[in-house]
Give the backbone structure.
Amino acid sequence: MKPIEELKTEHRAIETSLKILGAICDRVEEENLLASPEHIDGLIEFFSVFADRCHHSKEETQLFPALEARGVERENGPIGVMLTEHEAGRAFVRDMAVSMGQFREGNTEALMRLVHNARSYIDLLANHIQKEDNVLFPMANDRISDEEAIRMAAEFDRIEKEKIGEGRHEEFHSMLERLGEFYVRA
Ligand SMILES: [Fe+2]
Ligand SMILES: [Fe+2]
């Protein structure tokens, strides 16, 4: 797959995960309880491994440097904004994990903090994906040569194996499929 197409496909999976997270937040607010904490654990794992460690690594170590080398600005420019948003996303995921720990220890207020951080994460990432799909990726398609795209695709394969490992990608997709069935299409 072409590298930009690959990133876009990953965006669709991330959007699905955000929809599921939003639906879980709705239920928590309606029922004032978290019926299946393991579903949130699975999503947190997806956000940190698939979205951050893998997808954001591909962008940060390959795509952004390639764009910077072709004149797209980092400081005060689109790349700087994307990097700041990746960092903000990491903080929200860390906070969600902390809230889950507190919830398990019996702290009931932790649930509302979890929902608050989850909603902030959903807004941040949904907007971030829009900007990349509609602004940054078209810029990349205009500027990156076929040769560079082939090199980048090979680097993406390497990152995929290193950061996620064989078979894990499929596991994440089937988890999203399962949770999507349960929360979104129900
Ligand atoms: Fe990004
Ligand atoms: Fe992205």
User: Anything to note?
Assistant: The domain at 3-184 is CATH 1.20.120.520 (Four Helix Bundle (Hemerythrin (Met), subunit A)). The CA atoms of residues 87 and 137 lie 20 Å apart. The chain has one domain: 3-184. The longest helix spans residues 109-143.
